[in-house]
Structure formats: structure tokens, C-alpha cells
Amino acid sequence: MYDVSIIGAGVVGCAIARELSKYDLKVAVLEKDSDVSNGTSKANSGIVHGGYDAAPGTLKAKLCVKGNQMFKQLDSELKFGYNKCGSYVLAFDEDDHKEILKLYEKGVKNGVKNMSIVNKSFILANEPNVNPEVYSALFCGSSGVISPFEFAIALAENAADNGVEFFLETPVTAIEEIDGHFIIKSDDRKFRTKYVINSAGLFSDEIAKMAGMEDYKITPRKGEYLLFDKDIGNMANAVLFQTPKEGSKGILITQTYHGNLMIGPNAKYVYDKEDMLTTKEGLKEVSDQAKKSVPNIDMSKVITQFAGLRSSMEQYDFIIEETKKGFVNLIGIDSPGLTSSPAIALEVLDILDKSGLGLDPKENHISYRTPYIRMDHMSNEEVNELIAQDGSFGKIVCRCESITEGEIVDVLKRSIPVKTIDAIKRRARATMGRCQGGFCTPKVMDIMCRELNMEMTDINKSEKGSYILSGKTQKAEGGNEQWSMIL
Fold it and tell me: 231 lies in which domain range?
């Protein structure tokens, strides 16, 4: 019997798991995909929002501001990487200027610190690539950027190190309530639990229906992005927003935590919760609108594009409530869900406490997580010493990102199982560079086979069935073994 079972291992579910891991509780996390952070959490802007755009008095406003203030301490403990770079909301005419004044007033009401309205000369002195026709901007010094999937992974690893059990590739198929507890079914497995946390993101309405609650309806909203090579990452020093219109924050331009330039997203409602395809029209919309903020973006430097889905509802605010005894729903956690996630976890903890779950602190809780080995963060002396200890750190696997064999092996030895090429990509950044895995994928697969005792044909790119190799081709006499690749 579990005390708490969390459905969904996105950033919110992982944040809740980490908070619960501080107490003497038996906790399970059930995730339908092959890795944590594999839904909305892997494909978003990675922005730690200031909290000035949420409607005052809402959960979004309260939890965004509270969550924002938690990231410095979280990064000191979990070492996922956080850059408090600030943000600008750019105004290009008097009408835009009036809107950013309204945002400023919202921010004041929400308790946002370090905000100011700045003029053209200030903007261009700090952001020389911004369109010189800029009129003014709202500057927020408390905004920042993170790698969203690395944050979720760090939360999950620390939770697992403290005893939380993660069950990947475990889709929930039914939920029953019997004798004051719940039975969660997943194919041929059953999980008995006193409390259920529904943190299933896009599928949270469907999970709620399994428990007899039919009042929720998620409509996915798709956003498309373009990611550029690092050599133009300095086109933006802070996060550059446009003045929001029609309920959208508009196309943003930002340098990612790892130094790439990124632009997006647009916003389009879709009906398929698995629709992660980019479109020619959508990417053109993103590039055209981004050039309003920074006209001289070199589009030849694009290395990849991607799309993400948001859990949109007609209701504006987050839904975080114990809808029935022992069943806590988190519905419609869209933007600023990433920023709010650590504060959402505390909100859920308070709900569980008031509901009667005993929260006895764990004496041997480990607050800190050993970060991944990042050789690009080391001095030459530290690199040489590491290679002297283990020669695998001297073997480059990913040339674009200068990732070594030793760094890849390091991420394979953590508490959350790594089963796919993309799972390694999100942790070690191998295949993340300008060639997008064109050169290093076979080497990464070799390491996976050796370290995880896998067969080449069992390795997936992302989910089950996304095989890279279909089988062996004929071996010439005296020649090397050849493989047939799925294209």
C-alpha cells in the first residue's frame, strides 16, 4: 500500500515527488512514457517568469511569484542550471506602452520585485540587436531561464535517491475506490494507495474521468519553436517578449541556458494530444514575428525545430484541489506552470496535510544532488586530472557539444533509468548540437549497449517502437557487421 501515488512525471509531478520524499511516506510516481519530463515539460520556453502578467488574486499569480523566488535555492541544492538573466516586454508604439504600464501595475499587485519601465536608450545599450524602432519596455530583473527537462530530471533523481519509486512506461488504464483507498490499474499491474495526485498534464482530464469526475476538459494548445546554433546565441542577453495580445505572451526571443538562441512559440489550438508536429506555416509565423523584435536573426543558423503542447482550459486559473477525499486534481497547469511548479508542490503538500496525511519529517533526507559531470564547466587542470583518473573522459563522442564517453556513462548510472537516445540527449546533451546526432548517434548506441546490456535493435530514439535499427544486413567475408537503419 502506497501512502501517495502521483500520476504523471512532468515537472509538477516530479516537484511534488521531491517534496513528499522529505517525509516518512511510501510514494510512487506512475508515468506512461519512457522517461520523466517527456510531455509538456520537455518542449517549452524554459522561462522562469517574473509573475507580472498573471491576473492579481489568482493561483497563477500567487504561485508564479512564490515559485520564482525558490529557484536560486533549488539550483544550489539540485544543480540543474539557472540563469537569472532578466526579461524585457518590448513596446513599439504608444498603444504597446499603455499595455506594459498595465503589466507593471499587475506586477506591483502580485508582489513582483525588481521591475521598471525603461526607455529606448536603456534597451539598446543592453540589447543592441533589438529593433531600433523600440519605444519602451517593462524590465523584470527577477526573470530567468533554465533547461526545463533538466530541472524535472534533477527533481526526479533527488526524489528517487530519497526513496520515491518511479514506474516508467506505466500508463494508467483505470482507477477504483475501495474501502477508503484507491486501486490504480496499469495493464497487468495494480497499485494500492491512500492518496492519488492527478498530475497528468494534457491527460489530467482523462485521469479525473477514471475516478468519476467529468467536469474537466483539456484542449491542447500547440506552440512551435526554432532553435539556432550557439554562435548566434548572443543576439539576446535577456528574455525578449513582445507586448502580449489576445491572451498570448507573443513570440519571444531568448538565449537558452546552454547558449543557443531560441524563438517561439506561436499558439494554435489542436485536438490531438499527441500532435507534436511542426508546420511550415507555423514556423514562418514564428520567424516573421520574431524579426519584429530582432530584425537581423540569421535564419540559416537554425539547427532544429520542435513543438510543445500546453494544457489549456476555458477556465483561466490553475485548478489545484482535493476534489474528493484522497484524490487531488491538478488541471490546466499551463504557463506559468514551470515557474510555479515548486510552489505548486508546497500547495499540494498543504492540501494533503489538511486532509489527514501524516507528514513526519525523514531524518536521513538528502537535500543535495550530485550534478552531472560537465567538462565544459571545468578548468584545463580539472579536465586533465579527470582524464588521468578515467580515460573515457578523453574520448569525444559528440563533436558539436564536445561531450565525452565518460559524461554519457555518468548519466547512465543515476537513479532514474535511461532507456532511449533522447533520454541521454536531455541529460548529457549528446546529439543536441548542430548535426543533431548525425555523427554521434552510433557511438551513443554502442555505449548504451555496453553499459545497459542492450541489443542495438532494442534501442529507441524516444518512445517504444521508435527503433533506429531494424536488423543486421549481410556480413561480407572478413568485413565488419553492418546494420540496417530505419529512415
Answer: 87-141+219-312
Residues 273 and 411 in one domain: no
**What is the maximum span of the chain, computed from C-alpha positions, in angstroms?**
76
Backbone angles phi, psi at 370, to 5 degrees: -70, 125
Query: What pLDDT, in 10s, does the model give residues 354-366?
Result: 999 999 999 999 9
Q: Which residues face 361 on adjacent strands?
A: 23
Q: Are residues 225 and 271 in the same domain?
A: yes
Banded model confidence at residue 168, pLDDT cuts 50, 70, 90: very high
Nearest to 152 by CA among 10, 5, 6, 308: 10
Separation in Å, CA 122 to CA 93, 117, 127: 16, 10, 8
Q: Express each pLDDT in 447-476 by its tens digit.
A: 999 999 999 999 999 887 788 887 776 665
**Residue 262 counted as domain residue:** yes
Q: Give the torsion sign (CA, 287, 304, 254, 260).
A: negative
Q: What is the average pLDDT across 26-52?
A: 96
- Whether residue 240 sits in one domain with residue 121: yes
Q: At a CB cut-off of 8 Å and minimum separation 6, what does 32 contact? A: 169, 170, 171, 172, 203
Q: What are phi and psi of 251, to 5 degrees?
A: -75, 125
Residues annotated as part of the active site = 49
* Long-range pairs of 423-428 with CB within 8 A, sequence gap ≥ 24: 423/34, 423/35, 424/448, 426/35, 426/37, 426/42, 426/149, 426/150, 426/153, 427/150, 427/153, 427/372, 428/372, 428/398, 428/403
